[in-house]
Specification:
The protein has about 210 residues and is mainly alpha-helical. The chain is about 70% helix and about 5% strand. Strands 2-1-3 form a three-stranded mixed sheet. Helix 1 runs antiparallel to helix 2, helix 3 packs antiparallel against helix 5 and helix 5 packs antiparallel against helix 7. Putative odorant or sperm cell receptor.
């Protein structure tokens, strides 16, 4: 059934409603965000600019740093803006987009960590065949597969969540749009959303364990 929502925006209730704490939390999370950006940005620049680091381990580490930057950017800028605003609103499709990229990047990072574990396993247990097994073409294929799988996994969440029915309540008891608080604001179809996402999660587990 297509979405028939009469709600065009949601109000993110955030971390706390105590106004005196908002400036302090803004400074705290801004500092955390800048540290994340600077640290991962430095890793990316070093890996790209240093030829001696053009190896499978650092290739995947560069992917991980890129994911960390994007993953933090999905939620933190909006949260920082809300700390300084009295109207903590986000549009319906803005909420769906945030949910999609949060799960896309989060699931991609989980799968990438599995690939990195496999890379270290080969390096330790099969050192003589390491360069043959983990050649550049295989590494590129693994990275592309991880990103595509994460995107498709998140797409299920986004499509099913966008089909929920909303009427009246537009409060989200969280500082960003995630499935559980988003579904709690819905009137119905939460069971089908949960069942569908759980089914796909179970389908991805054997794939991740294969590494």
């Amino acid at each position: 059934m297509p979405n028939q929502t009469s709600v065009t925006e949601f109000l993110l209730l955030g971390v706390t409603d105590i106004q005196e704490l908002q400036p302090l939390l803004f400074v705290l999370f801004l500092t955390i965000y800048l540290v994340i950006m600077a640290g991962n940005g430095a890793i990316l620049m070093v890996v790209i600019s240093e030829p001696r680091l053009h190896s499978p381990m650092y290739f995947f580490l560069g992917n991980l740093s890129c994911l960390d930057i994007c993953y933090s950017t999905v939620t933190l800028p909006k949260m920082l803006k809300n700390f300084l605003s009295s109207h903590k609103a986000i549009s319906f499709w803005g909420c769906i987009s945030q949910l999609h990229f949060f799960h896309f990047l989060g699931s991609t990072e989980a799968l990438l960590l599995a690939v990195m574990a496999f890379d270290r396993f080969v390096a330790i247990c099969k050192p003589l065949r390491y360069t043959l097994i983990m050649n550049p073409w295989v590494c590129a294929q693994m990275a592309v597969t991880v990103w595509i799988t994460g995107f498709l996994y998140a797409l299920l969440h986004s499509v099913m969540t966008s089909r929920l029915y909303f009427c009246g309540s537009n409060y989200i008891h969280h500082f960003f749009c995630d499935i559980k608080p988003f579904a709690e604001a819905s009137l119905w179809e939460t069971l089908s959303l949960t069942s569908g996402c759980s089914a796909l999660s179970r389908g991805l587990l054997p794939w991740a364990h294969s590494f």
